[in-house]
Amino acid sequence: MTAEDTVHRVRHGGREARRRERSHKATGHGRPYITRNIPTYDILSEENLQKIEAAADRILAETGIEFRDDDVALDHWKKAGAKVDGVRVTFEPGMLREILKSAPAEFTQHARNPENSARIGGRNVVFAPAYGSPFVMDLDRGRRFGTLQDFENFIKLAQSSPWFHHSGGTICEPTDVPVNKRHLDMVYSHIRYSDRPFMGSVTAEERSEDSIDMARIVFGRDFVDENCVILGNVNVNSPLVWDGTMTKSLRAYARANQCAVVVPFILGGAMGPVTNAGAIAQSLAETMAGCALTQLERKGAPTVFGTFLSSMSLRSGSPTFGTPEPAIGSMVIGQLCRRLGLPLRCSGNFTTSKLPDAHAMTEGTMSMLAAIHCGANFILHSAGFLDGLLSMSYEKFMLDADLCGALHTYLDGVKIDDNQLAVDAFAEVGPGNHFFGCSHTMANYETAFWDSETADNEPFEKWEAAGQDDAATRANRLWKQHLREYEAPHLDEGVDKALREFVTKKKAAVPDAWY
Amino acid sequence: MTAEDTVHRVRHGGREARRRERSHKATGHGRPYITRNIPTYDILSEENLQKIEAAADRILAETGIEFRDDDVALDHWKKAGAKVDGVRVTFEPGMLREILKSAPAEFTQHARNPENSARIGGRNVVFAPAYGSPFVMDLDRGRRFGTLQDFENFIKLAQSSPWFHHSGGTICEPTDVPVNKRHLDMVYSHIRYSDRPFMGSVTAEERSEDSIDMARIVFGRDFVDENCVILGNVNVNSPLVWDGTMTKSLRAYARANQCAVVVPFILGGAMGPVTNAGAIAQSLAETMAGCALTQLERKGAPTVFGTFLSSMSLRSGSPTFGTPEPAIGSMVIGQLCRRLGLPLRCSGNFTTSKLPDAHAMTEGTMSMLAAIHCGANFILHSAGFLDGLLSMSYEKFMLDADLCGALHTYLDGVKIDDNQLAVDAFAEVGPGNHFFGCSHTMANYETAFWDSETADNEPFEKWEAAGQDDAATRANRLWKQHLREYEAPHLDEGVDKALREFVTKKKAAVPDAWY
Predict the structure, then answer these.
(1) Partner of A126 for a Cys bridge, out of A3, A165, A383, B65, CB 3.0 to 4.6 A?
(2) pTM of this structure
(3) Do residue A365 and residue B360 have CB atoms under 8 angstroms apart?
C-alpha cells in the first residue's frame, strides 16, 4: 500500500474494512476462542514440580492462611476438616487437592450472542482486555482519570476487534460514577455495547450479587443456575491472607454457579519471597485455598486458577512488569495448574512503561508469549495495560489487539499436509525462480500470512514520504477510526429496558458513596 | 532512583557503573556464552517431523540444487555419489545425512582473549549483533549510509555490553571504504576494538582467505588449522541455488578448518512457498546441502546449520519480519537441526519498523524469543536490526542489548532448592506481613531480579518530572554514554603491527573497486 493509500484508508475506511474482513476470514475472524494447535511449554521436571508442590503443602500446613471477616468461610473450612485457629486456617497436605476434584477442568462461559460463547479451560485460549486501571491515557490528552465514557469506548474497541473473545471487566475505573454504583453502569455497558462474555464486580458482596442479578435478567434465572454466564476476579491479599470482601464475593459467584477467578498478586520481595520458586509455591498455596473455597460453597461451580507474579526493582522498590522472572514463573505455574486439572488465568500484556513505546512492547510481548506458552486459558490484561496497571492506554490497546491477532496465527502452529508442504511447487518453480505467480502461491496466498494492522512494512522512502509515523501515532489514528466505525450489536429491547430499570432502582435505593 | 539521579548518572556514570557492575555480577556478567537451563520448545510430533524430512528429501532427489560457477563443488558432489547434470545436483535420500555425520555437534570458537572463547552448539547460546545493513540510523541524524566510524562504534558498543558473546561480522557496511577492501578494515576493527570471537568476509573467495589470514596473524597458523577462530556466514541464493561466490567462500572457511554458517534466506511467496511447512522443508534441503559441502571440502570442519525464514505482505510484496509464521517455523527448524546433530543459527531481533518504537520491539521480542525457544546456538542479528535489515540503529542496539540481558535470566530458568523455595521465610514473615526486611530477602535480594538498563520503572510522577522520555530517548543517551566510557581491550603491539602491515599491503596491491 502507498502512503496515499494509508491516508485514503484512514479517511474512508472502505478499502481498509474490506482488507480487514479478508484478513479476519483468513486468520479466524469471529472465533469465539482459540483452540491451541501447539503444545504447552513444560519447563520443569516432574521431580522439581513435586518439590514446589511439597513447599506449597508445607506453607499450607505449617503457616496456613488467614481468612478475615468471613465467618461462613471459616465454617466451611471447619466442616471440611481444616484446622481453624481464630482466623488462621491450616490444611493437611492433600486436603485441598481432594476438594478441588469437583471443580470442572473446562467450562463454557455463555455470551448473550451464542456464537460468542467461550470455552474456558483445556486447550482453549481466551483474550480479554486489561482490568482495573484508575487512569486512562491517549497521545492527545495524556493521562487523566478514567470516566464511564472511556469505559464504554474500550468496550467498543474490544468489540470491534476480531482478536478478543471476552469483553473483560473493570477495563478502567469509571471514576465519574460513585464507587458504590459503578458496578451497575459497568455491567450494563458490557451487556449493551458488547455481545461477548464479560465479568462482574467483586468489590463488595452486594455488588457481586447485583452483577449476577443483571446477568439473570439477560439469560434467565434458571439458565444462570445451570450455566456460567459471568466471571468475577477475586484477589488474595498476599501473603497468605484472604479478606472477607473477596471471599464473600467469591462465595457469591460460586453460590450462583458462576465462576470466581482466583488470583494472588505477588510482588516478589514485598508480598512474597524474592526468589521465583518461593513465590510460585506461595501462589500455588494461595490459589488452591481460594479455588477450594468455591467448591465448599457450591460443589462443581466453575473456578479459574489464577496467578499474577511480578518482580520489583530492588533499587527503588518499584514493581516491575514484563520481566523474565515472572515469564518463567508463568511456565511453571502452567504445569502446576494442569496437574490440578483447573483452567488457568496467567500473565497478560504487562509493562511499567508510561508510553506505548519500545519499552512497553518489549515487556508486553515477553509477558504475552509467556501466557501463550504456559497454557493460560483466560488471559486477562491482554490489551491496554501501561504504567504497572495504573493506566489504560488507547494506543497501547490497539497495538496489543494487533499482537493478540498475531498470537491467533502463532497458536495455530504449523500444519503439515501435502498442500502445506508444497510438494509439487518445487518441481514447478525450479531452482532460481520465484514463487510469486506459481499455482501453489495462487492457491494459498489469501490465507498465507498474518497481516498486521499497526505495523508499517513499507519501504523506508514510502514511510518517510507518508510522514515518518511511529507505531503509536498509527495506533492513535486507528482507535479513532474504530470508534467512528463501531456499530452496537443488537440487544433485545425488553432486556435493555429491564436492565435499565434495575440500574435505576438500585441507584435510587442508596446514597452515593465514593469509597 | 529519582529523576535527579537519572541526570546524575547520565552525566557522571560512576554510580551507574557501580550499579551495572553489581547487576552484571548478579546476572552473569562476563559469561562467554550462556548454557541454557531451560528445555527447548518442541512443537511438532515425530510423525510430522518425518513428513518434513521426507519433503526435503524429495526436493533434493527430484528437483535438486544448482551449484553455479564452482567446478570444484561439482567435483565434490560427483565424488560423493550425487547425480550431477550440468550445474544441477540431485541427491539420493539419506546421502547428505550420512555426509553430515562428520560435522561436530558443538565446537569452541576461540577468542583472542581466552576468557571470551565461546562454545557453539549443544545447550549453549551466543548472542551477536545484527549483520549486513547498508544504512545506520540514530535519533539525532536519521538514516544515512554506514561508515567505518559507525562500524567501529557498534563494535565498541557490543564490546561494552555484558550481554553479547560475539563481536559479529559486517555489523553495518562501511560504505566509505572501497568494496574490495572493506573486509580488511572490518576484520581489523573486530580484532582491535573487541576481544570476543568474530566473523570474517564472504563476499569473494580471496576476501574470505584474507579474513582467515588475519586470524592466523592473531592466533598462529598451526592453531588456526586445528581450532575454530573465525566464522563466515554464507547464504543460499534461494530457491535451490548456490552461487559460486558463496560456495567458494564456504570452501575457503572449511579448508582452513574454520566455520561456515550456512543460511538460506527464504521470503515465503518469493524465494519459497507461501506455506510455512514448504518453506521449512526447502530450508532444510538447502542447508543440508551447504553444510554437507563443508564436509566434502574438509571432513570434520565445524559448520553451523542456519535458517532465515520471513513472511511477506501479500498486499504490497514487502517482506515482513518478526511475524508469527517464522517464529513458529524457527521452533520446527530447531527440532530438525537437533535431529541432524548440528549447531543452529536461527532468528534474531527482526522487524520492518523504521524506528526503535513499539512496532520494532513487538516483532523483535517475538522473534528473539523464538530463537531462545527453538534452541538456537548462534543468534546473529541479536541487536540493532531495523527496517528489514536495511538499517542498523544505535538506539535499537541499546534496547536489544537490554533484551539480550533479560534473556540471560530467562535462559537461566528457575532454580529449585530450599533457599529458592524460601521454605523458612513464610513462617518468619507470616500472613499479611511484607517480605522487605526478612532474612531470606536480605540474603537473596542482590541476585534476585533482572535489572533493565533501558526500562523506566519509576512512578508516573517521577517519570513526568524527569522529562517524560520514551525508551528510544533513553537509549539515545545510553549509547553516547557507552561510547564515551568505552575502553579498548589490550592488544599485543606486535600483533597489531602485523595486522596493520597486512592490511596496508593488501590495500596497496589492487586498485579500489566499488562493486
Answers:
(1) A165
(2) 0.94
(3) no
Rg for chain A, CA atoms, rounded: 24
Which residue range forms the structural domain that includes residue A469?
A: 1-413+450-515
Contacts of B42 in chain A (CB under 8 A): 39
The answer to whether B431 contacts A241, with C-beta atoms less than 8 Å apart, is yes
Q: Please report residues of A whose CB lies closer than 8 A to that of B415.
A: 275-277
| SS3 labels along B452-515 | CCCCCCCCHHHHHHCCCCCHHHHHHHHHHHHHHHCCCCCCCHHHHHHHHHHHHHHHHHCCCCCC
Instruction: Report the C-alpha gap between B26 and B447 in whole angstroms.
Output: 5
Per-residue cell: A402: 494487533
The total number of structural domains that make up chain A: 1
In the structure grid, which three cell numbers stand for residue A85, read together?
485457629
CB contacts of B66 in chain A (<8 Å) are: 431-432
Alpha carbon distance A327, B103 (integer Å) = 36
CB-nearest to A357 from B237, B323, B471 is B471
CA dist B236 and B472 (Å) reads 35
d(CA A396, CA A350): 11
Q: Could you give the CA distance from residue B112 to residue A454 in angstroms, rounded to a whole number?
A: 45
Cis upstream peptide for A39 (omega within 30°)? no
Residues in contact with A199: Cβ distance below 8 Å, sequence separation at least 6, in sequence order: A128, A131, A166, A167, A168, A169, A170, A190, A230, A231, A232, A233
Nearest to A470 among B325, B327, B355 (CB): B355
Per-residue pLDDT tens over the stretch A463-502:
999 999 999 999 999 999 999 999 999 999 999 999 999 9
The answer to whether position A435 is within a domain reads no
pLDDT above 80 (res B220): yes
pLDDT at B26: 41
Residue A427 lies in a domain: no
pLDDT averaged per 10 residues in sequence order, chain A, 515 residues: 33 42 47 97 98 98 98 98 98 98 98 98 98 98 98 98 98 98 98 98 97 98 98 97 98 98 95 96 98 98 97 85 97 98 96 98 98 98 97 98 98 97 94 94 91 94 97 98 97 98 98 94
Contact B416 A270 (CB under 8 A): no
Long-range contacts, stretch B250-253, CB < 8 angstroms, 24+ apart: B250/B202, B250/B290, B250/B293, B250/B294, B250/B297, B251/B70, B251/B72, B251/B73, B251/B205, B251/B293, B251/B294, B251/B297, B252/B205, B252/B208, B252/B209, B252/B212, B253/B200, B253/B202, B253/B208, B253/B212, B253/B294, B253/B301
Residue A353's closest chain B neighbor by CA? B456
Q: In this structure, what DSSP letter does residue B268 have?
A: B
CATH of the domain at B383: 3.20.20.480
Q: Are B481 and B10 in contact (CB under 8 A)?
A: yes
The answer to whether the Cβ–Cβ distance between A355 and B241 falls below 8 Å is no
pLDDT digit string, tens, across residues A215-267: 999 999 999 999 999 999 999 999 999 999 999 999 999 999 999 999 999 99
Check B414 against A277: CB less than 8 A apart: yes
Do the Cβ atoms of A63 and B426 come within 8 Å?
Answer: yes
User: Is residue A321 within 8 Å of A133, Cβ to Cβ?
Assistant: no
Tell me the average pLDDT of chain B.
Answer: 94
**How does pLDDT run across B385-425, given as a tens digit for each residue?**
999 999 999 999 999 999 999 999 999 999 999 999 998 99
- Distances in Å between the Cα of B166 and the Cα atoms of A255, A351, B34, B163, B396 are 60, 30, 12, 9, 18
> Which residue from B271, B434, B450 is facing A270, i.e. has the nearest CB?
B434
Distance (Å, whole) CA B301 – CA B324: 34
**Residue B79: inside a domain, yes or no?**
yes
Instruction: Return the pLDDT at B29.
Output: 56
Which element (helix H / strand E) includes B60? none
ipTM value, please give it: 0.94
